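Quick one, tokens below. Sequence please?
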């Protein structure tokens, strides 16, 4: 685990080990290791490791993959996302807008599956922008454990080094034509002046050429983009190298499914957000620089296993003989070749009748 969570890891380790003990398993099955880059290199390059599942940034993911290559250790990489939501003009905005507000404000959007790009159909774009601006202005920042009840919607940022990066991404977007309607900078809280807060932000009129569409923000920044039709929406989504999750909101179920299946992402939701993460029976993972491989679901469990093909004779006293015509050394290679052709046709023909003719 990251050095930034050294304190909390001891807490989580106690919880996991107590759960294992209660369920009758050896608590030593799970070990937590926290450290800096040298610890990460030692673990990922160790020949004692059978599999690595890494969750983090694309930059560090490449280093993990490089270290694992020394021993050809299998790797699953979940490297963050720039998840999109496409909102068509027939979407139920009464359902859609609250879902998308949560996708950005929840945990200050410090989730790999937080929605970081919202593409809105041109017919409803202006109305959508106005409503989101009204809501984002009302989002309250603070510390839920210290502030009075019911006065906090959005908490602090985990890492102190994120503020310069967020402000630079927003400044780049504004310089290229975007409008920053709410927030846009770090927030100095009157009761928590040392707190790591970023103001809930709304950027409108964002286009695919802006840096903020190609770099993960991991902060409470709502990015709104306009699209004309299905083709335009898909084109703008694919302008980003990330491909983790996605959402499509439409009153037309067929269109929602059609567009969701066209998106080059590892996961897709129609008229919802993040439900693929809540449902741990589904495989979780992405494509592009969001990584590869899956965890969760049967696919994730299989990824941690080494599959072995195994055969044996089903019936007793029945063995697989080699026909004399193809027994080495082969007496007549031309007849042996014709016999082999018939065996292949018998086994792999597309119909029973073709197989029967090959066997005659």
């Amino acid at each position: 685990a990251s050095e930034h969570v050294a304190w909390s890891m001891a807490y989580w380790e106690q919880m996991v080990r107590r759960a294992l003990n209660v369920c009758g398993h050896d608590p030593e099955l799970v070990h937590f290791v926290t450290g800096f880059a040298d610890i990460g290199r030692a673990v990922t390059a160790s020949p004692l490791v059978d599999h690595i599942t890494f969750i983090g940034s694309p930059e560090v993911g490449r280093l993990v993959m490089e270290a694992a290559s020394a021993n050809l250790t299998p790797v699953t990489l979940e490297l963050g996302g720039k998840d999109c939501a496409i909102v068509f003009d027939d979407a139920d905005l009464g359902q859609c807008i609250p879902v998308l507000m949560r996708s950005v404000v929840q945990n200050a959007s410090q989730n790999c599956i937080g929605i970081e790009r919202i593409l809105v159909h041109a017919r409803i774009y202006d109305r959508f922008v106005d409503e989101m601006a009204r809501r984002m202005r009302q989002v309250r920042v603070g510390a839920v454990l210290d502030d009075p009840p019911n006065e906090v919607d959005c908490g602090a940022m985990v890492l102190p080094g994120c503020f310069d990066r967020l402000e630079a991404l927003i400044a780049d977007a504004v310089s290229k034509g975007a409008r920053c309607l709410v927030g846009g900078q770090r927030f100095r809280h009157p009761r928590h002046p040392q707190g790591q807060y970023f103001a809930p932000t709304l950027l409108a009129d964002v286009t695919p050429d802006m840096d903020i569409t190609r770099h993960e923000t991991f902060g409470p920044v709502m990015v709104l983009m306009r699209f004309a039709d299905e083709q335009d929406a898909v084109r703008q989504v694919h302008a980003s190298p990330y491909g983790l999750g996605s959402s499509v909101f439409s009153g037309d179920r067929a269109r929602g499914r059609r567009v969701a299946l066209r998106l080059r992402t590892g996961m897709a939701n129609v008229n919802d957000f993040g439900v693929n993460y809540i449902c741990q029976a589904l495989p979780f993972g992405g494509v592009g620089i969001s990584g590869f491989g899956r965890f969760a679901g049967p696919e994730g469990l299989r990824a941690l296993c080494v599959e072995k093909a195994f055969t044996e004779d089903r019936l007793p006293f029945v063995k697989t003989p080699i026909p004399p015509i193809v027994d080495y050394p082969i007496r007549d290679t031309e007849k042996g070749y014709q016999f082999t052709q018939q065996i292949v046709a018998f086994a792999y023909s597309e119909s029973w009748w073709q197989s029967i003719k090959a066997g005659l």
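The CA atoms of residues 230 and 259 lie 7 Å apart. The mean pLDDT is 93.
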